[in-house]
Amino acid sequence: MRNSERQPASQVQSVDRAISVLELLARNGEAGITEIAGELGVHKSTASRLLSVLEARGLVEQLGERGKYVIGFGIVRLAGAATGRMDLARLGRQTCQTLAETLGETVNIAVADDGVAINISQARGSAAITTQNWTGQRTPLHATSSGKVLLAYLPDAERRRLLRRKLEEYTPRTTTDPADLAAELDRIVEDGYAACFEEFELGMHAVAVPIFGSDGDVVAAMSASGPSYRLSRQRVRQIVRPMTSAATELSEQLGYYQN
């Protein structure tokens, strides 16, 4: 086997062993290097290297200088992020459904995920012609209403970093100039909503509002989308108010308190 083939296999094995270590500590509460090495079927030096990496990432902690290892608080951080998304999807399901019935348009909730927006909940409107099922799909931040909301409320440094990327053109209406997009993002924060008119898909309009978490940061965006002939620019402005009310209600369920 060539070196290029051996290396990925070795990396996969290391990941599998690291997960086994975390599962062992979760099951037993604590364990020493000898016990961990025996569980993995590896030499103590190999187990020690794995634990050093996990400890550097905050995923395990050592009790005392030469004590046993336990699960670290880094796991809590990772679990909290996943739990937060699950709670948001669960709580948002009924809000999406109620709003979709009120507006007659498809309503989505999306969160930021590694430079894109990912839709975690959707309710279809009552209209005969509705948009496709976006649940689980990843969409660009700069060309969708939800994505623009998520991008607008990012910390300045993160926003600037993402704006340095090439902005792909999906339709002739997509904003691809970073300066123009930055100005639009500032207006979104000021206005409290974002709109897209055929920027991601020709014939589709959408509008989105922010959802806030308990710490006051924007954790998601709620959007309504539909065909351009029905969701006109004028109607977009009209539905911002009920959408903001629904998003505020969901934000409060997540622990957000508005002064």
TrEMBL record:
InterPro entries assigned: GAF-like_dom_sf (IPR029016), HTH_MetabolicPath_Reg (IPR050707), Tscrpt_reg_IclR_C (IPR014757), Tscrpt_reg_IclR_N (IPR005471), WH-like_DNA-bd_sf (IPR036388), WH_DNA-bd_sf (IPR036390)
An annotated GO BP: negative regulation of DNA-templated transcription
Pfam families: HTH_IclR, IclR_C
Domain HTH iclR-type: 12-73
Top-level taxon of the source organism: Bacteria
Residue ranges of every copy of the IclR-ED domain listed in the record: 74-256
Keywords: DNA-binding, Glycerol metabolism, Transcription, Transcription regulation
Record carries keyword Lipid metabolism: no
Signal peptide: none
Purpose: May be an activator protein for the gylABX operon.
Protein known as: Glycerol operon regulatory protein
Source organism of this protein record: Amycolatopsis suaedae
